[in-house]
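Hey,
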Amino acid sequence: MRSARIAIIVGVILTAFGAWAQVSDVAEGGSWFKWGPTSLAMFGAGIAAVLSGIGSSIGIGIAAGMATGAMQEKPELFGRFLPLAAAPGTQGIYGIVIAVLVLNKISGGMSIATGWQLFFAGLPIGFAGLASAIWQGKVCASGVGLVVKDPGQFGKALVMAVLVEFYALLGLLTSILMLGKI
């Protein structure tokens, strides 16, 4: 889990530098750093995409690792392991959707208040996607273990994974509703 924390920190730092490092005209006394509404909006989009993407990659790694080990015993169950291993990946997709919606709201005459609103609109799916994807990966890994013991229990394992997915959907819905008010 330590490597997951390091990946999260590195992802947030890289996102922050990418959003902030907008070049302005140095000849006119500007600097490389411009804290404006566009930077804020881009940072919000980055948080939505990066945090949910990190969560998805960790969650898929947890579930797929378990599935790969289980296939050594029962390779014929690959078709049932695949949805369980892929389920945590949806949070990353939700984060990308919100990032695109935030980026599409950026305009030239945007106020700093609008920039902050777009920044905050990326937070719900970023953090909900991060946490729910990791926990969904753990639930899916347990589901793989259940399916190995009794393949007829696949539906129950998938339902348990969907229960965790619900909270990522709430984060997505919150971000969409916030964007709708901007």
